[in-house]
Amino acid sequence: MNHAHHKKVQQLCHGIDQIAMALLDRELLTINIFHPQQMELERLFSSNPEAYPPGGRKKKKGTSWGQHVLIDKEIFIGEGTEAIKQSFDDHETIVRLGLQSVINIPITSNSACLGTLNILMKHPRIQPEHIETARHLGALLCSALLNLQSNTAQ
Questions:
Q1: Is residue 2 very low, low, confident or very high in pLDDT (cuts 50, 70, 90)?
Q2: Beta bridge partners of 59
Q3: What is the pTM of this model?
Q4: Closest by CA position to 138, among listed 47, 64, 75
């Protein structure tokens, strides 16, 4: 990816993060690119790069979360630390950061999953308006992730 395009994508991610902070009271926001052949997610952006550095990867092959979000392209809502423990390998880090709820939005185009928008919060319950806001924020990422995937495929 060229430098100018990378800078624009990062600016978009920062903007989405600022909106999520203002409207959802988010504590952590990450944006991942999906690599379907490997069933892996690669972190493109993180609001907490110390705990979750960009470039980090997560294997999702054979997980119910991966099936739900990446294959079935359904939003995942995790409420409470028990739901987080059941769904994420890195649950200890998530809990240590005091995070108790998560919204994972699959970013899709033409029925393909391109990546995910992940919003984690300290409050244990997700409200319907949080999900709707997160869906709209995820939609803003579609063209950027589509462009990134087409650039890496070349």
A1: low
A2: 40
A3: 0.94
A4: 75
